[in-house]
Write a structure and sequence with these properties.
Number of helices: 2
Number of strands: 0
Keywords: Membrane, Transmembrane, Transmembrane helix
Shape: rod-shaped
Helix content: over 70%
Structural class: mainly alpha
Largest sheet: none
Radius of gyration: 23 Å
Number of domains: 1
Order of helices and strands: HH
Distance between the termini: 42 Å
């Protein structure tokens, strides 16, 4: 989970570094629609990735709880 978040953050930082370099060279205006969309896209990607991870771990956790409950139920019946 941390690796995915760090990888996405690294992409966002690289995008920002390239944009800053182009602004410094005078090749790109300071505020552009592309920059806004790029930043929004990176943030949206991070949110989606994190939601997928959270939902995945939640499903695994719920399945594990059900297994434990089932094991307890079977153990009671065997007594």
């Amino acid at each position: 989970m941390v690796v995915i978040v760090l990888g996405s953050t690294r992409c966002a930082v690289a995008t920002e570094a390239v944009r800053s370099y182009l602004v410094g060279m005078g090749e790109l205006p300071v505020h552009t629609l592309y920059h806004s969309l790029a930043v929004f896209g990176e943030v949206l990607k991070l949110i989606i990735i994190n939601m997928i991870i959270i939902i995945g771990f939640s499903v695994l956790f719920i399945q594990r709880l059900r297994e434990l409950r089932w094991d307890r139920k079977v153990a009671k019946q065997k007594r």
